[in-house]
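Exam prep: given the inputs below (a chain plus flavin-adenine dinucleotide), describe the expected output before reading on.
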Amino acid sequence: MPAKYDAIIIGGGHNGLTAAAYLARAGKKVLVLERRHLVGGAAVTEEIFPGFRFSVCSYVVSLLRPEIIRELQLASHGLEILPLDGTFTPMPNGDYLWRVNDHARTFREISRHSRADAEIYDEYGRAMVEMGRFAKDILAMTPPDPFSKRLKDITPLIDLLKRFRALPELDRHNQLQLLTMSAVDFLDQWFETDVLKATMAASGIIGTFLGVRSPGTAYVLLHHYMGDIDGAFRSWGLSKGGTGRVSEAIASAARAYGAEIRVEAPVKHILVKDGEATGVVLENGDYFIASAVLSSVDPRLTFMKMVGESHLPDDFAADIRNYKFRGSSGKVNLALDGLPDFTCKPGAGAHLRGAISISPSVDYMERAYDDAKYGRFSRKPYMDIVIPSLTDPSVAPPGKHVMSCFVQYAPYDLRGASWDDEREAFGDAVIDAVSEFAPNLRDRILHRQVLTPLDIEREFGLSEGNIFQGELTLEQLFFLRPAPGWASYRTPIRRLYLCGSATHPGGGIMAAPGRNAAMRVLKDRTA
Ligand SMILES: Cc1cc2nc3c(=O)[nH]c(=O)nc-3n(C[C@H](O)[C@H](O)[C@H](O)COP(=O)(O)OP(=O)(O)OC[C@H]3O[C@@H](n4cnc5c(N)ncnc54)[C@H](O)[C@@H]3O)c2cc1C
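Solution:
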């Protein structure tokens, strides 16, 4: 007889684990099935080279919901977030821009470029915090269904509109601009310094196949601005031990509540009988029965591969086929035997402890996108770099360092070439681009790991290598994520739920989709 569970969760990424923890906490018998040899998905720490521990994919934490940290007592399960202070942007003319959390220092620094920008910078920050505050409550809610004919279903939407109307006029105006404008157009209204706008606009394009001048990118800017660590707005941090520690802490909480977690257990099929999910079959033929099945895997894999199109309503199948992934990011992880030395600010100062942004001008950013539009990886890419070993020495041998380079653009579909042939050329382009600002880098490299979107798809099961399980663009957010009418974590297959980043509120180490989905299952009394 196959084992029977209240809930089976497909995928042991941080969202699957979060759903498992909440369901187990509610007394349910829960099984998590993870394809890889370790849990974490895109939030994982691995020793790629002996002695060097990398946050292989995601590298910084900000969006992780404080209520989840508290409710699952993640600190007691080993979660520790270390502050990541500042963003340093080297410039080709030998200057730089360096913003830190210290107000007076940042004011002085921006003043070197523009006094007017320094003066308005705080006001901008306050406006974004206000907008973040409005949007923040939306993160924890199950999106209302505007297509529903039942008043009960659209009441939360009416409440949201009422809240919107109660905002001061300026905030309402800003919200609408964020929803419709490009990151650069939005920032142009506030600032004049090119390098400042380029670096700030960068958050608008992370994980999307859009450029800083593409409409709709202003919203993603807010998404990235909204993070908080235990209530402290806008701070990004490093997870001690790498981002895998976040997943391990959630897994530890789930186990403490009684959940069972199996690794090297790839799911092949979701069993469907009379329109209802009844369990799962593994690649090795083992199968398990469950009252509810939750998939944290993206919708293409969940529905097209594991369920099968024949079980789906035609319109839903079409929506899933049209759901956009369009991976545009790569990652280069470096093991170093010393620190990079930036020509514009030599030495091993505090500027290396925060984020290092390769975004010297708006045109540089847009040209990086131009390459991608025509099917090439950026010859001079945008990069978000961190050196976690400076803050957390546990991740590298003494005196050595790990350097993480998040890179855009690396389009999944290369025109006339294959990623298997272009991987090393892409890695070289990344090293060349950093070396323009830190010429000693090449000599410091002991090992490098180059991840293309194809590698991200193959290794981490993210279709087309999209880092958020589907683009965070307006037509795929809130009540449209992943498909109109199906943003409530339920699916057209009864007792089958989605609980990963392809559901509201989307990607990032946030854990909100996992928690929201578990709450849905408990409310439905399915498990
Ligand atoms: C390169 C990169 C950089 C990123 N940087 C950041 C960052 O700095 N900060 C941030 O907040 N976010 C970042 N992100 C995004 C963030 O990591 C993801 O949005 C988040 O980790 C996704 O979590 P998830 O649990 O929803 O899905 P996933 O982590 O994708 O988990 C899904 C799990 O399902 C497993 N699986 C797949 N198929 C099967 C199967 N058939 N059977 C069983 N298991 C299966 C996978 O192995 C995986 O473990 C980044 C992502 C990438 C790829």
